[in-house]
Amino acid sequence: VKVKIPFGNKHIDAIFSVPEKKSTYGVILTHGAGGDMNFPHLVSLASYLASHGVLCLRFTCKGLNIAYRAKAFKTVVEYLKLSDEYKLSGVFLAGRSMGSRAAASVIRHLSQEEEDDDDFIQGLVCLSYPLHRPKLQSKLRDEDLLFIRCPVLFISGSADEMCEKQLLEGVVSKMKAPKKIHWIDNANHGMAVKGRTTDDVMEEINTQVFSWLGKNVELEHK
């Protein structure tokens, strides 16, 4: 289902992947610095989630400014929260590369706004989180991650040139949130692995995301 979400004097293009049965939880998903919501990895994850009973809303925001991207993401969260059609008890924010930075920024800012203590945001999924620029490992983009308290799943390639394995493990060890890293062996930032098809890699990513979501929704209900 295609929708246009009002955003200032513009709008954000978005697509709902709707499961057959009514979903109580949803995932909001966005792309990295390049591409848009039709990036094949996002389409694959959205259709996998919907076919397994999880509503997925993916959207396009082309800006390369992280504050602008976060503002757009927050607008989409509020849109879904107020939706009469899809009454959800909670959402997980998810993004690829720069999109996951924007998601982390939104969660940090919402948690610092005191009125937002209603637990609508259940967790964060970071696909290929860009922890540093290629070859520039001295400056880490970890400040938002260290503030987050909700559960976080990282799915990263062990050969990601923007997320050195030991550096991410170091940041994660300092995080106060419940967290998990799933490494895709020998994958680069684009999740390409020599000798494996894209579909094969996506199957691994999709099943990991879905099983983690399930565990975290269960925790909420215990």
TrEMBL record:
InterPro entries referenced in this protein's UniProt entry, alphabetically: AB_hydrolase_fold, KANL3/Tex30_Abhydrolase, NSL3/Tex30
Span of domain KANL3/Tex30 alpha/beta hydrolase-like: 27-210
A Pfam family: Abhydrolase_11
Residue ranges that the Swiss-Prot or TrEMBL entry lists as coiled coil: none
Cross-referenced PANTHER family: TESTIS DEVELOPMENT PROTEIN PRTD, TESTIS-EXPRESSED PROTEIN 30
Protein name, as recorded: TEX30 protein
Organism of derivation: Zapornia atra (Henderson crake)
Lineage: Eukaryota, Metazoa, Chordata, Craniata, Vertebrata
